[in-house]
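Entry:
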Amino acid sequence: MPSFTRLNRSAATLTKNRTEGSVSPFSGMCVTCVDGCIGMCEIGKSAYRGQEVLYPQPFGIITAGCEKDYPVDLSHFSIMGTAKGAMGVPADSDKATFEKVTIETKIGQKKDIKLKVPFIIAGMGSTNVARQNWAGLGGGAAISGAILTIGENVCGMDDETELKNGRVFRSPDMEFRIKSYRDWQDGYGEVVVQSNVEDTRLGTQEYAIEKLGIETVELKWGQGAKDIGGEVKLKTVKKAQALKKKGYIVMPDPDDPNVIAAFEKGSFKEFERHSRMGMVEEDSFMKRVEELRKAGAKRVFLKTGAYRPADLARAVKYASKAKLDLLTVDGAGGGTGMSPWRMMNEWGIPTVEIWSLTWKFADQLAKQGEYVPDLAFAGGITFEDQIFKALSLGAPYVKAVGMARSPLAAAMVGKTIGGRINDGQVPVYIERFGNSKDEIFVTAPELRRRFGARFDELPAGAIGVYTYFKRLSQGLRQMMAGARKFTLDYVTRDDIASLTKEAADISGIPFITDVDKEEVQKILKAK
């Protein structure tokens, strides 16, 4: 059986084997490691750049997703269509067409967040790649009617943040991120502010609630990319010192004269800023939820990462006891920051497994008569078939899916195309569609009609996100129509089947030839 993991070389760490066609499957080393090699592999590069090789590169302009080929993934399930009936519309060939499918939904304890699409752009925090594309993410999420989450460390990383008594008094970056969404919001969706340990100490969520009118906040236990706090790279001593002063862990120590001398000499070119790991205890969790509600939060979410099953059980149970509005569960595998590369590949519960456990835990609470918060599944989702499978695997508790890398990719591409249009340098690959926004972006005529003169103010990155979500929306509606489910409420676990016995065992979704067994016999035995 082949290895599930690629060792000792990756495009993410800008490394490769010298003997690419002949590599030891266990160690990832070249079969013959030769004296005199300049060190192109991760071992070799680590010999001269050390801990820098822990992280995906180049920092600030990339997102990264693991290369591990997990034993079970969403391709191990197949969507079950049917030729009979329709749910949500009359069973009439003229009425049960895929454009009649609605994917609008409502989220929260009071169902007071309306979504045009069941999509959440999960926590995009202080990383350069998110900040540089925020106008596109904010505008695109808003005009799509999706939820946008402002991730951790935004106020802490903002050079212009004003503190009073160690608490955030003003943050232009946070103001910008919220405004980027609200300027285009039309009654659907929501902008959410997340927090970690440092954000809590800085009073980020209280500031957002009291000064910026935020109504929904999210507590963060972690994410699928890593099981430690968030990290970024810092390119100046001044920035490193400022963040240390705000309470972050900065490595190496930017106040050490020897470190400063080494940096100025060029021995290293970036500092590392690390966030602390949260310490989850039920009493302190419940206390924090109550603090946020007293501060004015109308809704409180929780996002948890790919921790061990007992931690997942805690997340489900605590969210139930606190009557949270949404719990997002993220499977192992990717991120928008600089999560340690080997950690990203080798830690945590993968997507199918953690989603399956979440459903089992939620279902147990429901059968015990306890409150089950709305759930969202995240973990490498990019296309409509995965969205359908996630909603089905988690039905009836999962109301939306979380995505991060894919909408960010759409924002980046839209922004890049917009810039090339403005420069009059549209690439040949794109030029076949035209030379203007109206020609290249297929949704431009619709958006121009919708926004009129404001269309020209819409960031090209936002058009990219909207157009991507438009594709996902139509694809999802087609999948649902094939299953004869015309609203999301009708999607169930019966709408997918396992293609392998292992997937069936993990998920509880029947093996494909075991589906409909009882109904099959009724049909065959009917007189």
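The mean pLDDT is 95.
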